Amino acid sequence: MARLELRDITKRFGRVAAADRVSVEVADGEFLTLLGPSGCGKTTTLRIIAGLVDPDEGEVLLDGVAVQHLPAHRRQTAMVFQSYALFPHMTVSENIGFGLRMRALSADLIRQRVGEALALVELEGLSDRYPRQLSGGQQQRVAVARAIVTRPKVLLFDEPLSNLDAKLRERLRLELRALQQRLGVTTVYVTHDQAEALALSDRVAVMFGGKVVEIGTPRQVYRTPRARVTAEFLGVTNFLDGQVAAVADGHCIVQTPLGMVEADAGLGVRMGEVVTLSFRPEDVRIGRYEGTAVTGRVLHASYLGSVTDYVVESGGITLRVHEAGGAARAPGEEITITLPATAAIVRGG
Amino acid sequence: MAQAAAAIPQVTRAPARRRHESLVDVLLLAPGLGYLLVFMCVPLVQVVLRSFGLLAIGEPSQFTFGLYREVLANKIDRDSIVFSLYFALGTTVISLILSLMTSALLQVRFPGRFIISVLYKIPLVVPSLVAAFLVLTIIDQGGIIARALQPYGLGWPELVHDRYGLGIILVLVWHNVPIMTVILSAVMSGIPHDITNAARNLGASPWQVFRNVTVPLSLPGISAASLLVFIGVFGAFSIPSLLGAAYPTAIAVVMSREVLDRANWGLASALGTIVTALSAVLLYVYYRLIRRQEAALR
Amino acid sequence: MNRSWIMRGAPGRWMLALGFFTVASVVLIIPLIVGVLWSLVDPDAGWFPPAIVPPSLSLANWRAMLAVPEIGQAFAMSFLIAPIVTALCAALALPTGYALGRRQLRARRTIELLVLAPIILPGIVLATGLGSMFIRLGLSHTVAGVVLVQTVVLLPFMIRIVAATFEGVPQDLIDAARNLGASPWPLARDVLIPLVRPGLFAGGLFTFIGSLEEFVLTFIVGMPYVQTLPVLLWAYLGGRSSIFTYAAVVTMVLLVPTIILMFVAERTLKQEYLAAGFGKV
Ligand SMILES: Nc1ncnc2c1ncn2[C@@H]1O[C@H](COP(=O)(O)OP(=O)(O)OP(=O)(O)O)[C@@H](O)[C@H]1O
Ligand SMILES: [Mg+2]
């Protein structure tokens, strides 16, 4: 168990900065997710933590001790690879015991710990199989068992669920989270799947172009993102430009073409400033409620099962609106919508 | 994608570390490359120098084109080059046709495919001399075919030691088809089935698929295999020396005679340089073609 | 391809199989059988046209192999040289192949060309160069000289196969091992070497067979004192009056081990290794 800290980590590949002054702190036992689009530098950051890539600049600290000069095999991190990287010439139990053998533990202890790990991931019967004789989901569990059995200070995951089908992915997601909480091990998890990030993490670090643009709890990054790219990456959102009309104790009122909307003013918002608001489709309600209500016309409707996704036009602005239940509305229908009681102010591009 | 990128070792490193890494590279490369430098490059350079009269053995050294003039003036030498080119080309073309057919058919599942895929590789491990012997027992005047035809009063043409080198080509084809087939099958099995299936789905007959999809996509393998076989056969010694006629003879046979019978290292070196230069030119042309192909595919 | 696109349905496949087996027996099996028969011809009865099969068979030629010293000596010579050449090639190719397969090299193109050269160069050209060089070094007509020349032509195959094998090890596996605490030596012993073992085995086999078969360089450098089986075969087939019966015996002695090795190793001698050896110019 340990506290992990990255300080100004930078890594360039030629002209590409795969990690650009990345600074993150992960508390003891915390589950942090690095979330971002493909090529944003998540894997690079993870591999720097594991010591598989040397940073050009910056420090990696474990419990306050700089470890960036330690070779990979002495880092006491354990990684679950996207490809699982199971050794094809070793059985399941040999794979799981590998890290313990490297630490020269006694054969008895290794057998005992491997048995525990197998039980933990519910693979007891498969200990003598070879990786090629396992399904994708089983291979994934072996990879997890192999990582946790060494009792690492930090557990690292690089998109461990991305090779599995949707159903299994969802189930294993829950199992992983439960396992991590049971072990209480500090964890850094890489994914480009926002749903996964939100479901698993204590905190999410959103990365773009090698930079960490935002860190917060799943609720914070989803509901009140600070960066426009975060809002965009974490699902469907509405952007609305406006001018700050009033500021008071952490809140402000923004004058938009559609009317007044209240927003969180955490970022030193000034009177008269032009800002962009972001709010989720499910925060817009169909019908007249307390708050700013406007009339609009349905341009397009798609039924998604749990919600219906409407594209609504009002005063030359199109908004996405999600309604759970409710009557089906046809394109062309006039409706009244109520803007959310509070929205997020986002900055950048 | 991320995996592919991750597989590339890091490029940016501190200078001291980089120097250390280069030293490791050199140390690792030294045994294999050092050996080749000493036992291949040095003798090769000697051959080239000797072909210009330098480093001569048992004669005064002096730069001269005399040896080349001698080669060009001598009908036996000239004919040996032409003859070698002739059977190398013949062997390559025939082997290519046969191995294209074989490897395309080997992509199809059929009963006993595994056995065939082992059997066809037998010639790979058969020494050329053994191949010559085996084929000799079949196609020679006293061979099995001639014997089988005799009762019916049918004659069997002279295939061994004949002017046209048919026996030579036959044995060389026997020996080279498996080499080409190994290369071509590897390339063909690398073509995604989706692509051939898509072509089928778009209405192409099996032959059209072969002609318009499989062959073009195998082109890198085809050209590499052809080049390899051509150059290999062009300098072949044992089979032409055993199965060839007294005249014309292969260039390698002429060279061995110069060396072994006359100890005329100079002339052999001139011939060797010609063979090497020809191979090098072919290799160069091949690389140019490949480069263009790769550029076109990008 | 579970659905053949060339011939649909079972009858087509059986036809294809029939075709393949017919061609294989005419082109491969019959010559082998005739070769065996020649080695079993009774020297007293001979095997003269128009007999399709020898009038009587005997083991006389095989007994002669033990009686005729040169066959036994050539056999011993071949099987003395092959393991030495294999060991030498392995020792030289391991580090170099590792570097080519796993490290970022600046002059990679040039190095690859250098390794390719002996495969492309006609043996007779190399023999001409090495022949005169070895005369000067006093290596001509010696076993050491023959070992050295054979290594020149076989080393490139070994290097290429070793390099391809090392290249084929996924980086993730190495990273995973390091991540789990493997320092360089255990990493090599427990992960890298087990993963490359089939490739190294294939390379060794390739080299061993290659050495048994090598003729031109052995002939020119070793003549007439170092006589391996192929050199003897050449003598029986062309050099002196051809002695088919002895040639057949030598042929079998050369063929049987290589074919057995090939069948045994079929699973390890994967297409990739062969293609790495021959293909990819
Ligand atoms: N070894 C390398 N050599 C050169 N460039 C690299 C290397 N590794 C990564 N990169 C580059 O660095 C950038 C970040 O790569 P990284 O693998 O960290 O992305 P990622 O966020 O994990 O993406 P993905 O979600 O696709 O896995 C990319 O532009 C990539 O091309
Ligand atoms: Mg990645």
UniProtKB/TrEMBL annotation, chain A:
GO terms for molecular function: ABC-type transporter activity; ATP binding; ATP hydrolysis activity. It comes from the Bacteria. GO terms for cellular component: ATP-binding cassette (ABC) transporter complex. PANTHER family: SPERMIDINE/PUTRESCINE IMPORT ATP-BINDING PROTEIN POTA, SPERMIDINE_PUTRESCINE IMPORT ATP-BINDING PROTEIN POTA. SUPFAM superfamilies: MOP-like, P-loop containing nucleoside triphosphate hydrolases. The keyword Transmembrane does not apply. Keywords: ATP-binding, Nucleotide-binding, Transport. Residues 4-234 form the ABC transporter domain. This is ABC transporter ATP-binding protein. The keyword Signal does not apply.
UniProtKB/TrEMBL annotation, chain B:
It is a multi-pass membrane protein. It comes from the Bacteria. Keywords: Cell membrane, Membrane, Transmembrane, Transmembrane helix, Transport. Coiled coil: none annotated. One of its GO terms (biological process) is transmembrane transport. It is found in: Cell membrane. One of its GO terms (cellular component) is plasma membrane. Residues 81-286 form the ABC transmembrane type-1 domain. CDD domains: TM_PBP2. InterPro entries: MetI-like, MetI-like_sf. The chain crosses the membrane at residues 23-45, 81-106, 118-139, 164-187, 227-247, 267-287. The keyword Cell membrane applies. Its main location: membrane. Belongs to the binding-protein-dependent transport system permease family. CysTW subfamily. This is ABC transporter permease. It comes from Candidatus Segetimicrobium genomatis.
TrEMBL record, chain C:
Its main location: membrane. Residues 75-265 form the ABC transmembrane type-1 domain. Signal peptide: none annotated. The keyword Cell inner membrane applies. GO terms for cellular component: plasma membrane. It is found in: Cell inner membrane; Cell membrane. The chain crosses the membrane at residues 12-41, 75-101, 113-135, 141-163, 215-237, 243-264. GO terms for biological process: transmembrane transport. InterPro entries: MetI-like, MetI-like_sf. The keyword ATP-binding does not apply. It is a multi-pass membrane protein. SUPFAM superfamilies: MetI-like. This is ABC transporter permease. It comes from Candidatus Segetimicrobium genomatis. The lineage of its organism: Bacteria, Bacillati, Candidatus Sysuimicrobiota, Candidatus Sysuimicrobiia, Candidatus Sysuimicrobiales.
